Amino acid sequence: MSPNATATEVANLYDTILILDFGSQFSHLIARRIRELGIYCELFACTIKLSELKFKPKGVILSGSPYSVYGKDAPHVDPALWNLGVPILGICYGLQEIAFTRGGNVEASDHREYGHAVISVVEHSVLFEGLPKEFSVWMSHGDQLTAVPTGFRKLAQTSTAPFAATDNLQERIWGIQFHPEVTHTTHGTAIISNFVSKICGAQKGSWTMATFIEKEVERIRGIVGETAQVIGAVSGGVDSTVAACLMTKAIGDRFHAVLVDNGVMRLNECEQVKQILGEKLGINLIVADASELFLSRLKGVEDPEKKRKIIGNTFVEVFDIKAAEIEAQVEQEGKGKIEFLLQGTLYPDVIESVSFKGPSATIKTHHNVGGLTENMKLKLIEPLRELFKDEVRELGAIMNLDEELIWRHPFPGPGIAIRVLGDVTKEQVAIARLADHIYIEEIKKAGLYRQISQAYAALLPVRSVGVMGDGRTYDQIISLRAVQTKDFMTAEAFEFPYDVLKRIMNRIINEVKGVNRVMYDVSSKPPATIELV
Questions:
Q1: pTM summary value
Q2: Quick one: which of 119, 123, 192, 424 has the fewest CB in 10 Å?
């Protein structure tokens, strides 16, 4: 079962809108807005052959793009799109693609539009139904239509764009020059809603996490069958926990969850995961304590990329050994074979991999277990592959997971090892771990945890002079980080009340031996990243 097969099977269960991505930075927002309407959608690269689709969409949206539609390397859609027989909406470049391929004219504009503009609706259209004649939109284009194709009519204009919106009712094609998916466009969600619901006929509210649970459980049972066993790694985070709960609900003890203790997890994390997943949620959980092995291999390693690779490779090795043990036991008991590997992949990862521009340049290696699939010759099963993070949290709430777990901040796969800048030893990990625990505890006490997207304490590889009691100290520095973000692509430092920061500082210096200075990182992303390394 390929990941693509998994996704398209889900698309057949719902009214689905197809988004074709031409490389726009806003493409994922189109998907978000449609999902928020309770309508399912999937995003593919604009170069996909429509004959490869395993579902018939209710409608198609063409995204924006950084390209010029008449450029030598400009991406173009499969010509079969025009014969698909469903409504089509082009956004920005998507509008220009419609015009360019159907006999209209697109040229570089003398008056480029970037930012706010006011459009005037000059012709009635279902696309603008219920909206005022004039409203503010967000433009981001250097090219524009100078003539529409035959059969198209002008719907709206701006002071510099004569064809800000157009349509062909007979062929059921619409195009708009602005971006309705960004919040800067007033009535943007209403425009998208008019297209997907009123024009395409997709049923609003048909895509909910309540219906997803029922359909996904049945789908998992159909994929796995009555005898196959499934194995998967869990971390105690919301993604892996929700995925494990879904698998357990679908196939019971035939799912084997493995928690690898790498020695660089948060304070008391293994004990908490065992209690929540194993005892409270009834998940078939096995713990592999490999903390000494991980720490021995990290000894003397300071380069963060090497740390990631050591932890990633060791994780695969330990997981592989534990999987072999489980498989031998299962076969000995005559309970079938382990045939599937569970992963908690989310839809933003899928979007990044299928978008026209491809994945962003690798800034750092991400820790996952994707390499296990080939090594163990298991088929991949990803029950959360079609979900955004907020949908996973909603799913967790419906499944009665603890609110604290649902809203838990992200934690890197390499754990505290990349938050100890410098040599990773058991002693250094203990310092960073306790400081982080105090930090998060105080954030929660102050009622700020849900306002912050991610927070952590890191141990810097420098020492500073201090005075404690009557003595001079020469100890280490803790750097605190807390950010607010909607998508983790950009982020701003959280503005703490000073009294909270002061209380955190006092506790860390007083309770964490070996630390005499605490700093707060106010860098934004970009230019900085959220993690220090």
A1: 0.82
A2: 123
